[in-house]
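ESCALATION

Customer reports they have been waiting on this structure for their group meeting. Please prioritize. Original submission:
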Amino acid sequence: MMLSPLDSFIIIIYFLILFFIGIFFGIKNTSTEDYFLGGRKFRGWVLGISLVGTSISSITFLAYPGDAFKTAWLRFLPNLMLPIAVLIAAYYFLPRLRIGKATTAYEFLEERFGSSVRIYGAGSFIVAQFVRLSLILYLVGLVLHQIIGFSANECIILAGVAVAMYTVLGGINAVIWTDVIQTIVLVLGGLICMFVIVESLPGGFSQIIEVGKNHGKLAFSELRNGQLTPVAWGPSLSEKTITMMLLIGLISWLTEYSSNQNTIQRFNAASSEVEARKAMYICAAVSLPTWAFFMLLGTALYVFFESFPAAPATEIIAGLRKAEEVIPYFIIHHLPKGIIGLVLAAIVAAAMSSLDSSINSISTVATSDIYRRFIKKDAPDSHYLKFARLTAFGTGLLMIGGAIILTNTHTKTIQDTATVLTSLLAGGLLSIYAIGFFSRKGNEKDVLFAILGTMVFTAWTILSSKALLPEFLLYPFDLYYTGLIGNIVMFVLVYGISLTFPGNKTY
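Update from on-call: job pushed to the front of the queue and completed.
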């Protein structure tokens, strides 16, 4: 499909706005303090909306509706634990992570445990973010491919270059202010899609709720053997249950607010601890209804295609096409010209609001936690600023390469893949921070041995998931629980080693 002149004009204007924001702030960035933290001058409301844009991403705009369209609302459950995690983080994590005008989340690890633990934290973050970047860019490339007709690889390169340009130029200032714009555009795009669906259905919004209930699309269910099956409540390691999904969410969000540089960098960019705390509350208050809305949009799409059947929609339900294709198909065939441009801008915004944050955070961590701390310690600040920009540029290239690789993979849904990968790459970091925050037990050697043990556990999980081990060595739990169990392994090992060798120094 070729975009109409009006749609093309809207997209071009949108990209130009982002590019000029990058140039504007690029001129002002004269130090790493500006490039990484914007001079630590941001108000809470700006950071809060920016955090919303970073957390929702194109996984929200494409994968959440795709998942709800094909299955139900099971994977929304972990998000319900965000408010609890925010309350804990606001009063127990935040004060410790802002001590001494910190730049990254991993400075605390060196102060508490030692430099090698800091390297582990920084390295784990960088690896996890490269995976996330590739997933998100792949999604936006998929949409652009279906709408504008370029090849998937061409679309990935186009979007990747665009987001890398303003991020490399403008640093955190460009990231935060473009995230504010992109969050607004994202929500507007989703509302437009929902409005068109409601207006098209004979029964309007009530039809969405009625059909959704009757078909089990609003339940916490899992697709098993082609049938939606409600999950149980009780705890279990062998299958997904409501209790376990909530527990996964709590661990995931506590990890996010203790060790994810994308989030901690916003805390440290705030003008005060009060403003940082305000940003956390705004993020939780806006993100949760936004996620729920996009899950409901997936349900609405299911009801829409029940009333107006289409072969691609049927093929998605049957597993013959990827679930994330349902939104692009709807945009192409059911939105009027001009509106397509706005919604396409929303999808691009959803991707960029996460991509720019991760690129800037990787640059910050690589520069502050590794290069300046361990490789070149006494260079002028201008040297580190140049290195940071080069790192951001290199990250953009690797992001594009990873997304191109993903075009040749086969997955259930991207939301499912993202959840599993997050679990695998968590590496027990939450337990390390929790011990550091609340306990005097454990030193550098204890944590390093525990990290090694957790890596063995993770390697076993990966090999087992690929059926590369004998049957009696295969893991007996659902892969979703890898991150949860990994944190338990890390905690038990650190405490076990520190108690076994009581002669070790404690904090």
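Sent to customer with the following note: The longest strand covers residues 221-224.
Escalation resolved.
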